[in-house]
Write a structure and sequence with these properties.
Shape of chain A: globular
Strand content of chain B: over 45%
Number of helices of chain B: 0
Shape of chain B: globular
Order of helices and strands of chain A: EEEEEEEEEEE
Order of helices and strands of chain B: EEEEEEEEEEE
Helix content of chain B: under 10%
Number of strands of chain A: 11
Structural class of chain B: mainly beta
Oligomer: heterodimer
Largest sheet of chain B: 6 strands, mixed
Largest interface: A-B, 27 and 28 residues
Distance between the termini of chain A: 33 Å
Strand content of chain A: over 45%
Structural class of chain A: mainly beta
Helix content of chain A: under 10%
Number of strands of chain B: 11
Number of helices of chain A: 0
Largest sheet of chain A: 7 strands, mixed
Distance between the termini of chain B: 37 Å
């Protein structure tokens, strides 16, 4: 597609539930990033994919968070047993190869109630 | 750990005024990006600077990368209400982009 697409744009879930957030990167971009942004803050790194593999998952806060990119294109961020502190905007970005210019999607606003 | 500090954190100015936003770090980056983010949207890339001392201009916006590639500045001339938004700098290093704390700019008509 023309840009990075994220779905859903908004997600409200109950504490303890499981959620999946989807990212469709720019066609041909091999690098994909997930970030999390809290209100009034800059984005915080979660995970980086190069192709199908997670090259760096050092930003994932705990083992409730997991992400996959099975075919090297679409990625899914999975959060188990959601907590109210997980509420944030989850941003996905892609870039052509590695650490070059990154283009962001519009984000998924996750609210855990 | 916040590798990049931006100042000021908040800025409210009148239309037509000039302003400068600073992005500082003790770390060296291979490149630095500036983004603008509007409420409910993702960050939109404005510019990438790569070479120490590099200056890039984008209409009324002037971006400069420090000689040591540790800091950067964004200067806006004759600000307009459409410039309102959250300005973010991001340094490229390792496997990620390290984002600054952001500068929230409001331009009053």
């Amino acid at each position: 597609g023309a840009g990075v697409s994220q779905t859903p744009s908004n997600k409200v879930t109950e504490k303890g539930k499981y959620v999946e957030l989807r990212c469709d990167p720019i066609s041909g971009h091999t690098a994909l990033y997930w970030y999390r942004q809290s209100l009034g803050q800059g984005p915080e790194f979660l995970i980086y994919f190069q192709g199908t593999g997670a090259a760096d998952d050092s930003g994932l806060p705990n083992d409730r968070f997991f992400a996959v990119r099975p075919e090297g294109s679409v990625s899914t961020l999975k959060i188990q047993r959601t907590e109210r502190g997980d509420s944030a905007v989850y941003l996905c970005a892609s870039s052509l190869t590695g650490i070059t210019e990154a283009f962001f999607g519009q984000g998924t606003r996750l609210t855990v109630v | 750990t916040q590798l990049l500090e931006q100042s000021p954190q908040f800025l409210s100015i009148q239309e037509g005024e000039n302003l400068t936003v600073y992005c500082n770090s003790s770390s060296v980056f291979s490149s630095l990006q500036w983004y603008r983010q509007e409420p409910g949207e993702g960050p939109v890339l404005l510019v990438t600077v790569v070479t120490g001392g590099e200056v890039k201009k984008l209409k009324r916006l002037t971006f400069q990368f420090g000689d040591a590639r540790k800091d950067s500045s964004l200067h806006i001339t004759a600000a307009q209400p459409g410039d309102t938004g959250l300005y973010l700098c991001a340094g490229a290093g390792g496997n990620q982009f390290y984002f600054g704390t952001g500068t929230s700019l409001t331009v009053i008509p």
